[in-house]
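Exam revision sheet. Question 4 asks you to relate a sequence to its structure. Input first:
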Amino acid sequence: MGVSANAVSVTGLLIGLGAALSYSRFDSDAMALLGLGLSVLWLVADGLDGMVARATGTASALGRLLDGVCDHGVFILIYVALALRVGTPGGWALAIAAGAAHAVQSSLYEGERTRFHRRVKGIAEGGTSAGGSWLVRQYDRLAGLPGRLARPFERKLASSADPSALAQIYGMRATAPMKLLSLETANVRVLAIFLACLIGDPRIFWWIEIVPLTLVAIAGLAWHRRVERALLQFSTHNPTSPAEPARFFVKEQGQ
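Answer key, structure tokens:
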């Protein structure tokens, strides 16, 4: 149909604007339900842009950046709409703190998900690319911050005599922490926003962002690094066969 992945990303942002406007009247159950419905449509667009990019071979660094900006933009719009409705300095402070926590958590999860998805294919991290605009490079640099702690396992995978065997055992053991980290997805936040608005107090959602989801991010990262450290002693002479195939966590435009 000639619709580009970037156009889908922007359309998703506009749908997200509609969700934010609906949630600004969260005192009405009907408007809260409309906000949920529009949020679900945004999630569809959020996944569809990556499918379009892969199907048309148009995945790019700019598309990945635009996708990330639109993702964060939708939540920023919802946060601002709810904070305006709450209308107190405390509400604004809570919204800003939750937004900051959200940005960090999402960036960490995307980095871990991308790393897991690559490793289960037996592919070690290559050299970092300096391509793209300054803004694209800064976005990639922020998303790749946890990679420094993961480098020992990357070196192990790169130098392994049997990377496929190591990838299999890694996939089996790392699936559990990735399942925990999947609580950081937009799906969970969309549901939490709706429930908080249905209850009549969006501050409940902001506290979920600040406390439980931050603890999930910390626990998931620590668990993933512990799995990596345990596999640094992996030997192809005595590999452990996985009980089930590794699960995948896929979403972004360029992946």
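Marking note for examiners. Residues 240-246 have pLDDT under 50 and may be disordered.
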